[in-house]
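== Sequence and structure of one protein ==
=== Format: two labelled lines per protein ===
==== Data for this protein ====
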Amino acid sequence: MSETNSSAPQAGAGPDADRAEPRTEARRVVLITGASGGIGAELARVFARHGHDLALVARSGEKLEELAAEIAAGGHTRPLVFAVDLEKEGAVNEIAAALDAAGATPEILVNNAGFGLAGEALDLDQAEQLGIIDLNVRAATEITLRFLPAICHARGRILNVASLASYLPGGPRMAVYYASKAYLLSFSRALHQELRAQGVTVTAVCPGYTETGFQARAGIGADMALARFGGTTAAEVAEEAYAGLMAGRREIIPGIQNKLTVLMVPFFPVSAVLKLTSWFQENRVLQR
């Protein structure tokens, strides 16, 4: 997707203008947040296999360095690595400054960073619940808006990792998480329509149950009802997400079971869906 831009000589340039150094085109990268594990790491591997240059963001610099070394060992360009906590104020500015220092600019943005908490809103820590909004909603929105001009200039793409939860009317016992993912799907749909004229595509991938580090941070146990039905792997989600992104699709729902769920939800009363969702969320919290 990269293009080479030529620079027209400036008016009033002197006789040495022809001997001036040519303007260097910025290193165009795929910027992936939450890339230290799970779906984010698998997406990094898929993008690298398809020849993309990467910039990886996560809290754990050590895990990012390990992934970057793995990608480089496979004969691909070593990714840029930025150990940044997106929940903190000023994180997006920090990433922008690091990209500038590396002479890089995003042509594809992957908003993968996010987390959830299992439990009732009354019982869960308030600050932790607000942290879900800080990361899943505020940070994803801020980083998108910050780099949107560069992505439009490159006629690039945006991939937002939402969730099957995005399609449900609510998520009792994971209320804030479900609401945050509904926001991300809505945001993606609107941008997909708005940016078509700019040559930019926006895609939301909405996986169902996928075993990653998400479950441990959320406090989800192996005895959860949904876990017994199985699900897609992080690698499968990443492969489908990449194919759908490059095809310019608006939404991707990996897995036949998940697709059927989304198709059936509108035919049931909201009250019934909320009760069923609540049942799936029961007996899920790990002993702490």
